């Protein structure tokens, strides 16, 4: 069954997080916020954090006897996703000016 696959569960949660961030920024800042090079930076940061989070959470969940429940997967994905986004935002603000 596909819903018991650890990587699929992490993928579903991370895609939900990315969609919620994009929709929230549309709601808060409007369409003008997504112009120029800012769009590439935001989407690339979301994509990289999505890939890292899926790999880490899926791997750790896969090593256990049975797959993590959805609640634990959501919590682990959120923590890992937020940590990678904060690290990337720090590096972008520090080294790219």
Structural features, described:
This protein has 97 residues and is mainly alpha-helical. The mean pLDDT is 86. It is 78% helix and 0% strand.
Could you list some keywords that capture this structure?
97 residues; mainly alpha
Short description:
This protein has 97 residues and is mainly alpha-helical. 78% of the residues lie in helices and 0% in strands. It has helices at 6-29, 37-62, 70-95.
Helix content range? over 70%
| Largest sheet geometry | none
Q: Would you tell me the overall average pLDDT?
A: 86
Number of strands: 0
Distance, first to last CA:
47 Å
Overall, the morphology is: elongated
Classify the oligomer.
single chain
- What fraction strand? under 5%
Element-level helix/strand string: HHH
Given the helix and strand composition, which structural class is it? mainly alpha
DSSP helical segment count: 3
Q: Uncertain segments of ≥5 residues (pLDDT<50)?
A: none
Write the SSE topology.
Blueprint: H1 6-29, H2 37-62, H3 70-95
Helix pairs in contact: 1-2, 1-3, 2-3
């Amino acid at each position: 069954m596909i819903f018991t696959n650890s990587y699929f569960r992490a993928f579903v949660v991370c895609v939900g997080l990315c969609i919620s961030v994009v929709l929230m920024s549309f709601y808060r800042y409007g369409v003008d916020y997504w112009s120029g090079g800012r769009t590439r930076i935001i989407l690339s940061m979301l994509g990289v954090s999505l890939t890292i989070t899926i790999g880490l959470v899926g791997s750790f969940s896969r090593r256990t006897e049975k797959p993590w429940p959805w609640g634990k997967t959501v919590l682990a994905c959120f923590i890992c996703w937020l940590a990678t986004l904060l690290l990337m935002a720090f590096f972008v603000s520090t080294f790219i000016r």
